[in-house]
Amino acid sequence: MATLSLKDVRKTYGKTDVIHGVSIDIADGEFVVIVGPSGCGKSTLLRMVAGLEEITSGTIEIGGRVVNTLEPRARDIAMVFQNYALYPHMSVFDNMAYGLRIAGVRGDDLKARVAKAAEMLDLSTLLDRKPRQLSGGQRQRVAMGRALVRDPAAFLFDEPLSNLDAKLRVSMRLQIKDLQRRVATTSLYVTHDQVEAMTLADRLIVMNKGVAEQIATPMEIYDAPANMFVAGFIGSPAMNFLPATVTGSDLLISDGSRMPRPAGLQDGGVILGVRPEHLTRSRSAGPGTLTVRVLAVETLGADAFVHARLGESGSEDIVFRVPGHDRPAEGTVVSLAVDQDKVHIFDAATQRRISGM
């Protein structure tokens, strides 16, 4: 086990900057998830930690040791990949033992370490099988076991659940979190799935175009996003954004609706952010409410997500959540009350959050 530290880590290809100075100190045993859309640099950052990509500048430390120039095998890390990377001609036991044999581990010590990992991952009855005889979830557990037997200073996960179906992904991410808690090994995990990120992480690194937009706990990011990108990426469905103007005692929404002016704001254009769960149906229109026309309804059982358009003939789309048995019909006009204590105000020019919660 060890700490992991990134200090102003940058990556440049020619004249193109792809990682713009990421810094974070990861505590011993902490589970940190790098999340962001495709092409944001999250896998590149992980590969730099692993030694599979050279860094352009900055410092990477594992266990207090600078590893910038060390080969991957000398960094005392273990990686779990998206594609499992199992040897098809080897048994589960031999796949899990392969790294240990390369490291010179033999005999009873090797057998004991494989057996312990197999028991933790519920693979004990599968050790004689070949990968083609396993399900996708079982193959991923073998890949995790191969990393686990090495007892590394840190685990690195590169979108390990992307190839699994939705139900199995839920089960596997719970197993990964439980396993990480039991072995208490420092972990850095990459995913594009914000639900997966929120479920697993002690802290998140939200990446966008090579920039770490925000580093914080999942709920800190959910409750107080640093900017509109983070606010729109974390949360499902995404936060609603409505152009507004601060004037007089009001916050004037683009469709003419008015909200109380939040304290401390200067006059001018802003963006109002409100999550779907902070909008509730109101029996009457009036100050502090929004009038919307229902476009479509996603029924999920206990809940439903309603897609609507602000104003009876407006152009701003909005999503709100209702109980599944109380969903409005498409085409109807409804009033929505806004939870004033839960709104976020973003600067229209910089998109930085300037007020809220």
CATH class assignment of the largest domain: Alpha Beta
β-sheet strand percentage = 35-45%
CATH architecture descriptor of the largest domain: 3-Layer(aba) Sandwich
Please write the string of helix (H) and strand (E) elements.
EEEHEEEHHHEHEHEEHHEEEEEEEEEEE
Give the C-alpha Rg.
Answer: 24 Å
Counting DSSP E segments of at least 2 residues, the number of strands comes to: 21
Going by helix content, strand content and strand pairing, the class is alpha+beta
Q: CATH superfamily membership of the largest domain, which one?
A: P-loop containing nucleotide triphosphate hydrolases
Please estimate the helix content.
Answer: 10-25%
Segments where pLDDT lies below 50 for 5+ residues? none
Taking strands numbered 1, 2, ... along the chain, how are they ordered across the largest sheet? 6-7-8-3-9-10
Q: What would the CATH topology of the largest domain be?
A: Rossmann fold
What overall form do the CA principal axes indicate? Answer: elongated
Characterize the quaternary organization of these chains: single chain
**Tally of DSSP helical segments:** 8
**End-to-end CA span:** 37 Å
**Number of domain units:** 2
> Largest beta sheet, briefly?
6 strands, mixed
